[in-house]
Write a structure and sequence with these properties.
- The chain is built from eight helices and ten strands.
- By secondary structure, it is of the alpha/beta class.
- The longest helix is centred in the C-terminal third of the chain and has 15 residues.
Length: about 230
């Protein structure tokens, strides 16, 4: 689903906050049908950081579903944070990793409602995060590839951390190596993780290279019939 939707986004830029000039837009625009999109300015008020925690549904909890979503602004202030009740019954709360317990989802916001609010906060923004494809899949949101700032793909951060270029580091490892800061000491917290990814982004913000964005690299894609 995710790969198909991003493919469509690259071709059509529809439903991504990147639209043609003359259309109502909450973010980037496109000057002509086939030209490079006109992006919003990459300034603090257009940057947010996203992180999600998953729970398991279905047989043995093998189906990942959104259990919590957190979004912070450029200053690390919370603009959205909510537990989310999946469409399917939860069979594994994955508490050891997600920090989510049954009580957190008993009166949580239904996914259908949460998805609308999340989209409102993400549309037309540059989105920072770590290994974001999992988060985008969970919230069913496909941003324009040029609006994605994925710290798990940033080679500059790997250099600073003293890690091999071909090794994709975890958020915990990268934060520890770059800042000497320990996160995820017990279970994960989506607010803590969103802020950690934001810190990493700011470390290389002035030298961010779009070539580190996997969505623009042909090798990222599997064969998909159009």
């Amino acid at each position: 689903w995710y790969l198909r939707r991003v493919r469509e986004a690259v071709v059509s830029t529809q439903s991504t906050g990147v639209q043609s000039v003359g259309e109502a837009s909450n973010g980037a625009k496109e000057s002509t049908k086939n030209s490079k999109p006109i992006l919003p300015p990459c300034t603090p008020d257009h940057i947010v950081s996203l992180d999600c925690e998953m729970v398991g549904c279905g047989s043995k909890g093998r189906i990942s579903a959104l259990g919590r979503c957190s979004i912070v602004n450029y200053n690390g202030e919370i603009v959205y944070d909510s537990y989310v009740k999946p469409v399917l019954p939860v069979t594994d709360y994955r508490t050891k990793w997600s920090g989510i317990k049954r009580k957190h989802l008993s009166n949580a916001v239904p996914f259908s409602e949460a998805k609308k609010l999340i989209k409102r906060h993400l549309s037309g923004k540059y989105i920072v995060g770590h290994d974001l494809k999992n988060d985008f899949n969970a919230v069913k949101f496909t941003p324009h590839p040029l609006l994605v700032k994925d710290t798990s793909k940033c080679l500059a951060l790997r250099h600073i951390a003293g890690l091999p270029e071909q090794q994709k580091p975890s958020l915990r490892t990268l934060t520890g190596q770059v800042f000497g800061k320990v996160i995820q000491t017990s279970s994960h917290c989506s607010i803590e993780d969103a802020r950690a990814a934001l810190m990493l982004y700011k470390k290389v913000e002035d030298n961010w290279d779009n070539k580190t964005n996997p969505f623009l690299n042909d090798s990222y894609w599997i064969d998909v019939k159009r």
